[in-house]
Write a structure and sequence with these properties.
- The complex is a heterodimer of chains A (about 290) and B (about 300).
- By secondary structure, chain A is mainly α.
- Chain A is built from eleven helices and no strands.
- Chain A has one domain: MetI-like (MetI-like fold, Orthogonal Bundle), CATH 1.10.3720.
- In chain A, helix 1 crosses helix 11.
- By secondary structure, chain B is mostly helical.
- Chain B has 13 helices and two strands, in the order H-E-E-H-H-H-H-H-H-H-H-H-H-H-H.
- In chain B, helix 2 crosses helix 6.
- Chain B starts with a helix and ends in a 7-residue tail after the last helix.
- Classes of the chains: A mainly alpha (about 290), B mainly alpha (about 300).
- At the A-B interface, helix 1, helix 3, helix 4, helix 5 and helix 6 of A face helix 1, helix 2, helix 3, helix 4 and helix 6 of B.
């Protein structure tokens, strides 16, 4: 017969394995956070030398890094705004309307998500080269909106599918015009889903290295700065800023999830929606 | 009166018929101009001849394609091998993890899902640099492996295929976990209970019910991991050396350093066609619903 511990182990093998996998996923993040308190000897922050809060105090001490961060934030803000509007419009059309060309639309949304980033970056650069378009913030913006639209469509579509339309019908019955109904009923109920989509688009933009690497010219974003700095030694501030960015995004994500749940309770949006808000973000490259 | 109202209804219907196109228009035009058309220009650039000094001319230069293949066949094959290995390992890690989250996590479900996507909230490059730190020559991991004898004294992890494959596996693991989780979550657990009622043991119930029903998630996860993995060049730069360089590294340096645009365009075109062919074959073999996600839309 099986003895106690072995039986326990067999019963919980999957859970134990899952626990290890979760640790594996979180280890590099923890390492970055820990090494933001390191006091490295040379130019490379790869070996633990001692604890210091110096680089948290001097977090903005490198002007070039600050500029790159500001560029990244501006780029992410503008591209998120455009991509969220365009993507939401596509999602509304897909879920609420019949039209000819649905298959082509679906393909146009899915194929970019299933194309290696290096090919997307290379093809855009090819076009910009042939037209002689100067590379910089504008070309980055055009590219970032392009790769964000598909993700927005997927997230917003999954919210729209579980959307109870009874309230909209009630508003119409009470004499509201379609536009008033959209503004006062649809949009507020959809807001948490839109926030989720926007947050994802923002994260994708601020994280993008490959496509930006091809189309940035001399403009430097946060990831491009890190890449450039990697050869000459990455300043500890990169670790501090990355940790700070992580904490802020996690907090924003928690807030959106909380709001989404509240909105679900308020509007009785189908709560057993099989796709939770975060996994809907699973559609493609980081 | 009667005809008037019916014609105005007809007009309204026609206007309504245009609404979806107004909604779709701007986004689809953006995707066409900055995704579809660039592919055409890349193909065109691949058929140019000339050098950076003399300028490039469009001349149906098909030899660029054979040149690109013969110069970079090593990187090409290496990319496919690394991406396949990383996808297989990711599947082995992701399936039990997704299974545990879907069926065993209870009220911890959301926390665990959050942990799965947490890596996305740090920059891709930073995560990879985190691994560079973990696997560096005087790190604990290397020390332990040397003591145990898996690594020789003075043996390294950095600049080996193992490190690059491990990095790729790590970076794309969430893309494997999430679709598998979504399809496991959708399974009606009564089917599993029914299998058990009909005297199948846990193992049979898993292989005959759970696994087949989660197949769409596995297909989607495999594609979403393999495609970016095959095109990746970050892990090869940070965790590997020139001996681990992949086709992405070649494309990047041809475009941005060597500025041999025709060869660069030819190589990325070949890469895209190869991956597209693999994906189509795979979908033919395994079914397409998972990737398209067409269910649940307006009928």
């Amino acid at each position: 017969m099986n003895s106690g511990p072995i039986k326990w182990l067999r019963h919980h093998a999957v859970s134990l394995f899952a626990g290890l996998a979760i640790i594996y996923l979180l280890v590099p993040i923890a390492v970055i956070a820990v090494f933001s308190f390191n006091d490295p000897e040379g130019k490379f922050n790869y070996t633990w030398r001692g604890f210091t809060t110096q680089y948290w105090e001097d977090i903005f001490a490198i002007p070039q890094l600050n500029d790159a961060m500001v560029t990244s934030l501006q780029l992410a803000a503008v591209s998120t705004l455009i991509a969220t509007i365009l993507g939401t419009m596509i999602a509304l059309a897909l879920v609420r309307h019949q039209f000819f060309g649905r298959r082509v639309t679906n393909l146009l949304i899915v194929i970019p998500l299933a194309t290696p980033e290096v090919v997307i970056g290379a093809s855009l650069l090819s076009m910009f080269l042939i037209y002689g378009l100067p590379l910089g913030f504008t070309t980055l913006l055009l590219a970032h909106v392009m790769f964000s639209i598909g993700f927005v469509v997927i997230v917003v579509r999954s919210r729209l599918i579980g959307f109870d339309r009874g309230l909209e019908e009630a508003a119409r019955d009470l004499g509201a015009t379609p536009w008033t109904t959209f503004r006062t009923i649809t949009l507020p109920l959809l807001a948490p889903g839109l926030m989720g989509a926007a947050l994802l688009a923002f994260a994708l933009s601020i994280d993008d290295f490959v496509i930006s690497n091809f189309n940035a010219g001399t403009t430097e974003t946060f990831p491009l700065y890190i890449f450039g700095a990697a050869q000459r030694g990455i300043p500890v501030q990169v670790y501090t800023l990355a940790t700070m960015l992580f904490v802020v995004t996690v907090a924003a994500m928690a807030l959106v999830t909380w709001q989404q749940r509240r909105a679900e309770q308020m509007a009785a949006v189908r709560a057993d929606d099989p796709i939770p808000p975060l996994p809907a973000a699973a559609g493609g490259a980081s | 009166m009667d005809t008037e109202s019916s014609s105005s209804a007809g007009r309204r219907r026609r206007r309504r018929g245009l609404v979806p196109y107004w909604l779709l228009g701007p986004g689809l035009i953006w995707l066409t101009i900055f995704f579809v058309i660039p592919m055409y220009f890349m193909a065109r650039l691949a058929l140019n001849s000339g050098t950076l000094e003399t300028g490039f001319q469009f001349s149906w230069e098909f030899s660029n394609f054979s040149d690109a293949i013969s110069r970079y066949d090593t990187q090409f094959v290496r990319s496919l091998i690394y991406a396949s290995a990383a996808t297989a390992i990711a599947l082995l890690i992701a399936y039990p993890l997704a299974y545990a989250i879907a069926f065993r996590a209870g009220r911890w479900k959301n926390v665990l899902l959050f942990a799965v996507v947490a890596p996305f909230f740090t920059t891709y490059l930073i995560r990879t640099i985190g691994w560079t730190t973990i696997l560096s020559d005087d790190s604990v991991v290397v020390d332990v492996l040397q003591t145990v004898g898996i690594l020789d004294q003075g043996g390294r992890l950095l600049a080996t295929p193992t490190a690059v494959i491990a990095g790729i596996t790590y970076n794309f693991l969430p893309f494997m976990v999430l679709p598998i989780y979504a399809s496991l979550e959708r399974i009606d657990t009564r089917l599993i209970e029914a299998a058990k009622d009909l005297y199948s043991n846990a193992r049979q119930a898993f292989f005959k019910v759970t696994l087949p029903l989660s197949a769409p998630g596995v297909v989607a996860g495999t594609l979403l991991t393999f495609i970016p993995a095959a095109g990746d060049y970050i892990n090869a730069i940070f965790l590997g050396s020139s001996n681990q360089s992949m086709v992405g590294n070649a494309i990047q340096s041809l475009y941005l350093n060597l500025r041999d645009y025709p060869t660069a365009a030819a190589l990325s075109f070949i890469m895209m066609v190869a991956i597209l062919a693999l994906v189509i074959l795979y979908i033919r073999f395994a079914g397409s619903e998972a990737l398209m996600g067409e269910e649940g839309e307006a009928k």
